[in-house]
């Protein structure tokens, strides 16, 4: 889950103004409680937790009155799921990692100074001996911005040390759009670019502000089982060593090399930055157990009355981190109540609302995707292998990490994208007495961190809805306090558990608003598009003939 305003929800408009059927708050709360219970084992893909989750979602979608919308069988009938093949990899035992800094060896502890990911390049054993480290700033190659952090450096056999986010983060101005993070700032890009360059590995320096989360999130998200889509040549996307290191370790590493970390951070913001070799090497040795498994997206559908080949798509990820390293209290189950039992529960009840309402002209699909926490993999697989043509998908409304602390006066979306689907949401919000507020933390890169993104990059108008930060009870100050508390103490941690204090009124209102947006779109002949200057506009326009 990548939603940034987890502490808040939306104002419930008077029932008379809503087209949506009433949402049963008790049932909504019960879904969240069930899905985030210890019995579901943190909903990890390819675990017993997945088996229970898929069974529950299938049962609930069926009871809600939806039709199965997944893969077609030999008889032409659709199943309730879409099979998603994934590469699963996990480190066997504890990885041995050590630095040699200016001739002084230092062992690194997994999860403490370093968070090493299981290799996703197909290797069963990773053995690295005294590989040299080189600092490459933000690790960006952006020809359209005349930006190259590598300056012709041959990175083969080397380990890259890179900063998280992009060069504009510190000053919020420059060649990368200022405050809003570009895709170049995402950790996924850093690893991908290192592999494309042929590097032996990458160490991303963790800092809480530019990462937008603390070390606990890094540790919990990277030291457990890893997944990836199945690739023909995985080594082109993943180097043998992919890891994060603590900022304090980076500072000490630079100092031992006669360098100042903060000074080099400043230099890395400039186009003329040059890579800097460090007086250090790294060694690593660990075994990897990897295999191809099959996970599942769960898919329900309401077939359109007059134009069933056209689709409005609602999405939410059902997965979380599963069972992993214990926290300070010894809890090993990462329940994922807010992230994303809330969105998954909303998806079920959204399906029920559509099943009860008059059948719309277009079909409406309810897609619960797997492996979001491992890199948006379930949505990436669907977008690459759509069950319903993307060219005739009118819009995607993603639900990730709804608020549970009461109604708010506003709402948002992740990122600053301009598109007709947002215009529809804003207009409908006014009818619900709600105000649209732009994403207040675009520097965190929320646009690239949730399941609408695989659709957006293929041109489909897609947004990830975000709860508001102006709480009716407590306003902006209380929302900020709750959001910071959640990020620090519960986000991607075992403490993200169901609470009897959860307030469902805002979540019910979220569903009502998003129902009206999707229902209106499903009954229209409109094809929302991206703004003329959007990077996704050209891709969408290429498929225009399919919509005539």
Please characterize this protein's 3D structure:
- The chain is α/β, with parallel strands linked by helices and 548 residues long.
- The protein is 28% helix and 25% strand.
- The protein has helices spanning 25-35, 48-64, 187-197, 208-211, 215-222, 247-256, 261-267, 337-356, 377-384, 420-431, 453-456, 475-489, 505-522, 537-542; strands at residues 67-68, 81-101, 104-108, 114-116, 125-135, 141-142, 147-148, 159-163, 201-206, 226-229, 241-246, 276-302, 307-317, 322-323, 333-334, 362-369, 393-399, 410-413, 435-436, 462-467.
- The protein has a 16-stranded mixed beta sheet that branches. It has a two-stranded antiparallel sheet with strand order 6-7. A two-stranded antiparallel ribbon has the order 14-15.
- Helix 10 (420-431) crosses helix 13 (505-522).
- The two termini are 36 Å apart.
Summarize the structure.
By secondary structure, the protein is of the alpha/beta class. It contains 14 helices and 20 strands. The longest helix is centred in the middle third of the chain and has 20 residues, at 337-356.
Second-tier CATH architecture of the largest domain: 3-Layer(aba) Sandwich
Shape annotation = globular
User: CATH topology of the largest domain, what is it called?
Assistant: Aminopeptidase
Annotated CATH homologous superfamily of the largest domain: Zn peptidases
Distance between the termini: 36 Å
Number of helices: 14
Provide the β-strand percentage band.
15-25%
CATH domain class of the largest domain: Alpha Beta
User: What is the gyration radius calculated from CA atoms?
Assistant: 23 Å
Question: What does the oligomeric state look like here?
Answer: single chain
Average pLDDT reading: 94
Number of domains: 2
As a percent range, the share of helical residues equals 25-40%
């Amino acid at each position: 889950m990548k939603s940034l305003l987890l502490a808040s929800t939306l104002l419930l408009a008077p029932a008379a103004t809503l087209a949506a059927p009433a949402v049963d708050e008790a049932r909504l709360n019960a879904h969240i409680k069930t899905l985030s219970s210890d019995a579901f084992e943190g909903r990890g893909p390819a675990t017993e937790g997945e088996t229970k989750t898929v069974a529950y979602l299938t049962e609930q979608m069926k009871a809600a009155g939806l039709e199965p919308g997944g893969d077609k069988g030999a008889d032409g009938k659709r199943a309730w799921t879409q099979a998603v093949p994934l590469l699963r990899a996990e480190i066997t035992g504890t990885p041995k990692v050590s630095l040699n800094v200016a001739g002084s060896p230092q062992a690194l502890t997994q999860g403490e100074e370093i968070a090493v990911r299981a290799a996703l390049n197909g290797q069963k054993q990773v053995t690295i001996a005294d590989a040299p480290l080189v600092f490459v700033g933000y690790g960006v190659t952006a020809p359209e911005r005349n930006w190259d952090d590598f300056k012709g450096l041959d990175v083969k056999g080397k380990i890259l040390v890179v900063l998280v986010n992009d060069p504009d983060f510190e000053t919020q101005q420059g060649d990368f759009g200022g405050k809003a993070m570009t895709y170049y700032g995402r950790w996924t890009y850093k690893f991908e670019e290192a592999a494309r360059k042929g590097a032996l590995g990458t160490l991303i320096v963790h800092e809480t502000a530019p990462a937008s989360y603390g070390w606990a999130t890094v540790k919990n998200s990277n030291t457990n089982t890893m997944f990836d889509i199945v690739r023909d040549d995985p080594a082109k996307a993943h180097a043998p060593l992919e890891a994060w290191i603590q900022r304090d370790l980076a500072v000490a590493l630079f100092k031992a090399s006669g360098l100042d970390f903060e000074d080099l951070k400043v230099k890395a913001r400039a186009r003329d930055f040059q890579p800097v070799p460090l007086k250090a090497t790294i060694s690593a040795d660990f075994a990897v157990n990897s295999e191809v498994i099959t996970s599942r997206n769960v898919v329900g559908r309401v077939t359109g009355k007059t134009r069933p080949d056209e689709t409005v798509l609602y999405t939410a990820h059902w997965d979380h981190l599963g069972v992993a390293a214990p926290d300070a209290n010894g809890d090993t189950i990462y329940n994922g109540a807010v992230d994303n039992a809330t969105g998954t529960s909303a998806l079920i009840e959204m399906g029920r609302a559509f099943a009860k309402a008059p059948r719309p002209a277009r079909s409406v699909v309810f897609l619960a995707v797997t492996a979001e926490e491992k890199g948006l993999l379930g949505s990436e697989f669907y977008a690459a292998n759509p069950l319903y043509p993307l060219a005739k998908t009118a819009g995607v409304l993603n639900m990730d990490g709804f608020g549970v602390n009461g109604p708010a006066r506003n709402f948002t979306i992740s990122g600053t994208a301009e598109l007709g689907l947002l215009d529809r949401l804003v207009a409908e919000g006014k009818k619900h007495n709600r105000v649209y507020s732009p994403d207040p933390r675009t520097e965190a890169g929320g646009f690239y961190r949730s399941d609408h993104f695989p659709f957006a990059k293929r041109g489909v108008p897609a947004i990830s809805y975000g709860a508001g930060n102006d709480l009716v009870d407590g306003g902006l100050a209380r929302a900020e306090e709750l959001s910071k508390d959640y990020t620090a103490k519960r986000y991607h941690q075992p403490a993200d558990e169901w609470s009897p204090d959860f307030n469902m009124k805002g979540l019910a209102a979220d569903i009502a608003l998003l129902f009206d947006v999707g229902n209106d779109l499903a009954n229209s002949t409109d094809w929302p598009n991206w703004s003329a200057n959007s990077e996704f506009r050209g891709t969408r326009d290429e498929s225009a003939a399919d919509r005539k």
